[in-house]
Amino acid sequence: MRHSPALVAAIAAALASACHAPGDASNVTKSAPSAVGSDSASVKTANRGVQVEGARGNSRITGSVLFRGPVPTFREPSAPFPECGARTPQDPLRVSGDGHLANAFVYIKDGLPPGDYALPTAPVLLDQRGCDYLPRVFGIRAGQQLVIKNSDKLLHNVRSHADGAGLTQSANSFNVAMPNEGMTLTKTFPEAQVPVALNCDVHPWMRAYGGVVAHPFFAVTGDDGAFSLSGLPAGTYTLEAWHERLGRTSMTIKLGADESASAQLEFKP
Ligand SMILES: [Cu+2]
């Protein structure tokens, strides 16, 4: 028996409708990945705002910085300034009899996993006294406050630049006049940079150097050339020493967990 054209049309319509149902379902299925996609996007957005805490551990690097060789002649770039009193030119290359180097900035240059370390609340202090910067070399965290004081009864200006890091201008650059005794100025260096140099244009010998780093693993050597970096996680690190007259020297150190390693960083003449 033949179906009437009307019945065929009705069956065709019913089939078409039945076929649409899976079609709708597949649209829903298709929309599901796009919904997951937006969730992923929002997770990514959230992650961008989350700070990952910097890694710490119980490992340590102790050691010393050495310079063995003839000490190059030092000539301070100075003219007599009576207002500065009877100051003695200081050679920034201070080496003990057995080769230990003072005022070297030692830090972990590379090898730490990405992460943010909380900033110290206390500022670093830099004094201008007797027409010299005290201290001449210091370490500071990127973003940490630097309080610069003028303890002299005369004008100094503080110019910050990055000549020693191969740059003259950076986000860390500034130039401020400090005309009065006792006045202070608070600055931050937003970018990690070793070193940021500071100088006074009035008194051409006045120089200071800040090692600006993004983590707490740094030190400045004293007269014994010694340094100690503690609280490190296990890892393989590039340890660098920088000195204003000698440049840079570095080495690689592999540190296990809860391990103490010793290191000697040596500048060649
Ligand atoms: Cu000055």
Architecture overview:
With 269 residues, the protein is of the alpha+beta class. It folds into 2 domains: 1-50; 59-267, Immunoglobulin-like. It is 17% helix and 38% strand. The protein is built from 1 helix and 16 strands. It has one helix at 5-49; strands at 59-67, 105-110, 124-129, 132-134, 137-141, 145-150, 156-161, 174-178, 184-188, 193-199, 207-213, 218-220, 226-232, 235-243, 247-255, 260-267. The strands form 4 sheets. The protein has a 5-stranded mixed sheet, with no helix packed on it. Strands 12-2-14-15 form a 4-stranded antiparallel sheet, with no helix packed on it. It has a 4-stranded mixed sheet with strand order 4-3-6-9, with no helix packed on it. Strand 3 and strand 4 form a beta hairpin. The longest helix has 45 residues, at 5-49. The radius of gyration is 31 Å and the shape is globular. The model is unreliable at 1-48 (pLDDT under 50). The structure holds copper (II) ion. Copper (II) ion binds next to loops.
